[in-house]
């Protein structure tokens, strides 16, 4: 599916609505832990995952640093979201201002990590969406090395495969398996219509119980 087609299909899909649709499909472990949050309230994610994984560095003073990261970044495509799996490491900021500048120029759709970032003041003021567990001043050089890319990863117990669709906003991040994308969009459209009817009923002073019994949403 092309990225413009995905954006049209998911134009009204929030992380919460995506999670509701996945619950309907009995996929109930698709949301990342609540400590993975946007760097700025305006930051939102929508796009297919490009996965990479980091491990503790073997050398604290590498002769040629960042090799795994540079190889990975040579392969990320426009519209994709970089998913940076660190095993919830606090060792270093794995994302910063310079890599953001490069990815923004290539129209990468955002970055997501279960680790930490740095250069936060600059990044929070920009339009490139970044989700992480927090910030730290440390550089990744000699602390964390990217050891693979293009393979499935796990963040907070949630498997993420290359091409799975990420929906992120202030509520959190929901991972939509690639094969469920169209069905999730259909279910969200149906629920939004039902919620509109529910909203109108209670806005007119109707009973919450009666509205729930009639429309089945809350």
UniProtKB/TrEMBL annotation:
EC number: 4.1.1.112, 4.1.3.17
SUPFAM superfamilies recorded: RraA-like
Catalytic activity of the protein: 4-hydroxy-4-methyl-2-oxoglutarate = 2 pyruvate; oxaloacetate + H(+) = pyruvate + CO2
Gene3D superfamilies for this protein: Ribonuclease E inhibitor RraA/RraA-like (3.50.30.40)
Name of one Pfam family that matches: RraA-like
EC primary class: lyase
Co-factor requirement: a divalent metal cation
Assembly with partners or alone: Homotrimer.
Family stated for the protein in its record: Belongs to the class II aldolase/RraA-like family.
Its biological purpose: Catalyzes the aldol cleavage of 4-hydroxy-4-methyl-2-oxoglutarate (HMG) into 2 molecules of pyruvate. Also contains a secondary oxaloacetate (OAA) decarboxylase activity due to the common pyruvate enolate transition state formed following C-C bond cleavage in the retro-aldol and decarboxylation reactions.
Name of this chain's protein: Putative 4-hydroxy-4-methyl-2-oxoglutarate aldolase
